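Bench notes, bay 3.
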Amino acid sequence: MAAVRTALALRGGVQGLADRLIPAEAALWDFTAGMQRTKLAGMLVTSGLADALGSGARDAADVARELGLSEEVTLRVLGAAAASRLVRMDRQGRVRLARLGAPLRSDHPRSMASWVAYQASSMNAAAHGEIGGQLREGAEPSGHRRAFANSIWDYFGEHPDEGARFGEAMREMTVLDLAAFARAYPWPREGVICDVGGGIGTLLAAILERREGARGILVEAPEVLGEAEDFLRSRGLAERVQRRAGDLFGEIDAQADVYVLKWILHDWSDEACRDILRRVRATMPAGSKVVTIDQHLERYRPSPVSSMADLLMLAVCEGGRERSPEEVHGLMRDAGLTAGRVRHAGLHMVVEGVAQ
């Protein structure tokens, strides 16, 4: 964690120095282009441009014709992408993805294509556009509910294509930190590890591959479990993982040694978090542990990553926020758990609670 924080602080210092080399209004003008850059990156994904460019250099006009796009507009979009360091363009109009833009490809080993498309979506923009109302009236209802009159989860249920892309975005982001999560906690070498709301089992699979004597339980919505079975079978883990339909706000029936809640609590208000933790506590045997993974954010100590994640939670989730370890331990104690150790994986905190 110290190395990540140091690198981000150094990067911020360099950016701050660069800003001091030009008038403040010029630096601010460049700052306000951030929305356009996010939209631009998302457009490279959703239009197919990033995948069409692939890993080589291609003529911009040829790519436009291949995708059925306007050649003029494609050239202007790619020109802006070059100015934003997402692509490189030569004087003959040949374009290749730059280092910054390469993860926009869906086949990149550390792809962020779905995450970028979600961040650039009109849905996300509309939710953030309601933060002014939240400033005046409070965090709840969320910006998303103010914009669409329902929760983001209900919205995804009504728009399954967007829901599927969001699910893929969460898997992409999990993969980026997967090794750190798998190393950050002393997962039992034998026994049972239960991932509550664990998607298709990406994290659970990484843990079980390091703990060959352990077994797993994946608790998820029924519509996710079919995809999870295919994924786990592809990793040779289908026989070691039980798949159980469950709901964060329903009954959870799973006997395990460790229960994992990754990127769950930050989606919800304190009251909802207590409810979730109580439902997990109700199924926990004495001596078992619950482990939560979220970004670490201390009040009055802004973070270039966690503070922006906190703003995202404000905009799209009902009462969602990033917290400090002490705040999470307080929620655990309210749910009848004893506070355990706190560990870190990059900018994330791994907070433990124990069932006595």
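Next record in the batch:
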Amino acid sequence: MRRPIRLLLRLFFIYAVLLAGCIGRASDPQPVLRLATTTSLYDCGLLDALLPDFEQAYGVRVQVIAVGTGQALKLGADGNADLLLVHAPEQEEAFMAAGHGVRREAVMHDEFVVIGPASDPAGIRGLRDVAAAFRRIAQAQAPFVSRGDESGTHLLEKRIWQNAGIEPQGEWYLSVGQGMGETLTIADEKGAYTLSDRPTYLTRWEKGLRLEILVEGDPLLDNLYSVIVIHPDKGPQIQARLAEEFVDWLLSPPVQERIGAFGRDRFGEPLFFPLHTSP
């Protein structure tokens, strides 16, 4: 009789531990703020540098969902994110006009660059007209790797091709459907050209990326990031108050100054330029 009793006691003990764990998780007071953002911000390490301070100050856990801007906007429209940090102004304006967001604030900007192999078979080095550079790449049928993921970077790339009067197609043009980091890896392996944000490029260059910046400085390459608070009408799961607090924190002068200093110690220059620093 003792063995069945011991077995029952052991099963009761396991059940009690599991039940306690479930109750603990259900009553966990720490809320989760879902931030859908770009793979570029995730890859360069800016969020890792900033978010722990917000989490500690507000007693919240920030769940980062790193996807292309198009996917981030879809997550917001479906109520599967509380706020967005993205970089596709025209699509963001349409998102707000459709009533998916209640607040949109510009946060910072950086620059896109066209990168490629040192040999530069299309001869674009030093050009400041990015559409002209794309035309030369197409004429040379030099390999070009596109993110192909409807991200902010991909949307800008398509706009540049349109300005260049070219519909890219053929074996030289490879659409990979990947984030910025993976796209850079593929372009490096193939000795190809691609469009990248400068912070992700510099982060990968530091780790051995061989591609070089060949085109920069065109006003079309300016890259503006905005934060959007999702409309609370998307459902009771939306953490609207916390999202508003996050935006206020992100735009505060101390955090903006940290954004402006990010990367300076590693690269000798800031990776981002904040828009709300104190005078």
